[in-house]
Amino acid sequence: MTSPIKLLIVTGRLAENIVRKTVESLRPLGQFEFVVQVLPISVAALMTPEWIAKHIHISPHIDRVILPGYCKGDLKTLNERSSAAIEIGPLDVRDLGDYLLGRTTQQKDLTSYNIEILAEINHAPRLTREEVVSAARSLADAGADVIDLGCDVGYVWNDIGVCVKAIRDLGLRVSVDSFNPQEVITATQAGAELVLSVNSSNIQYASDYASEVVLIPDEQTHWHALESNIEVLDAQKIPFRIDPILEPVGHGFASSLKRYFDSRTRWPNVPILMGIGNLTELTEVDSAGLNFLLLAICQELNIRSVLTTQVINWARSSVKECEIARRLVHYSLTENALPKHVDSSLVLLRDAKLHPLDFAELAQLALNIKDWNMRIFADPNGIHLLGGGQHFFGHDVFQLFDKLTEANPKNLTPSHAFYLGYEMCKATIAMHLGKQYVQDESLNWGFLTVEESDRHRLVSGKSPSNPTRNPKTPGTGLDMNEDKD
Fold first, then answer.
1. Rounded distance, CA 96 to CA 106, Å?
2. What digits encode the pLDDT tens for the residues 316-332?
3. For residue range 342-363, what is the model confidence (pLDDT) as tens digits?
4. How many whole angstroms separate alpha carbon 365 and alpha carbon 392?
5. Fewest Cβ atoms nearer than 10 Å: which of 93, 154, 263, 339?
């Protein structure tokens, strides 16, 4: 029988209770033996490796030493003092179990994919050359492999060749979306490599394009025309891929999906493209989930290209969503693994995991906090303000702030009040949406997350909430303003 791994868990005084509670919950597993060492400091996040080295005692039998997640710095001094493995634990001590058991989301290899993204610039003829180039660069930065120039019906874009060349000069690939032979020939001569689209109405020009084409049905139910047009293109040795056309919900969506399945069965070796914008642009829901599902269908059906656009606001990040999704679905199929706990970049509205708050523990913690630099916690049950030995709780931040002002804290300056309002606004969003709130840190919006600057909470190097510095609450990252002993 394998001996339990002997762990030394290092923490500060304020985090002691929650650390011990977490440790006790892990003891029944029998995989670990725990020693909790409380160093002479209130806030674990204030620890540095150099300071820890002066206070810690590591017994010879210890295998691993777990330091607080917010501890930053060179571990060399600690490593020289002990043969035990010294490591930085999770940011939130409540994740200690997942961390030790390897259940945290580990970095997976998501570098591989085989779905090509065509990103359309809609109504390109209405834009200036500079606007077209700028849009192309932006789409490529988001992950597009091919920039598709969407032309306007009934209008000949005389500047199309110049715009194609300008995009090609950026090192980008170009396709042209037009049924006008004049536009298409000009575009392909300038370097466009793919034409969207051809059917019986214009297939006679396909040989003039000297480019790959996308073949679409004349009508959704007329498979015989598509089949005969495939024979025409094959006979002329014109490279092509087919697009059976995805229809919007309410206009034959399910039937159109079946066409893709049927096409793959009927033509197992023919390249297929799926135009997914008909669903994302014409369905009033956030696009990330739709894009993932459509990319998953494409991956399973060996559909190797998608055409998307991001015109309407709820689909404004579709290219990036597809770029993330294609890697995730490729990983899922090649590894035969569920697309879960692999990459949470597409979890935007809610968070993948929430840590419940214990009201009694927060109340006890509040008694130990004597200063008035407020600590803010939030969960679906409400918002907590802790400071000055007080514990304020409620759903209405205006009422909470009224309770705080009635307590007459001496440090409630305008800048401090503004800071608290900003943080409580974030806490309110988290409470309503089901997101994890961590004071002084950005809410997690997946790949859309914008990290917060320290500027909003630093005044001459000091925090308006914490005039000493910006240490973090044990296990949660919240300000605790307790000095080292």
1. 14
2. 999 999 999 999 999 99
3. 999 999 999 988 888 888 889 8
4. 12
5. 154
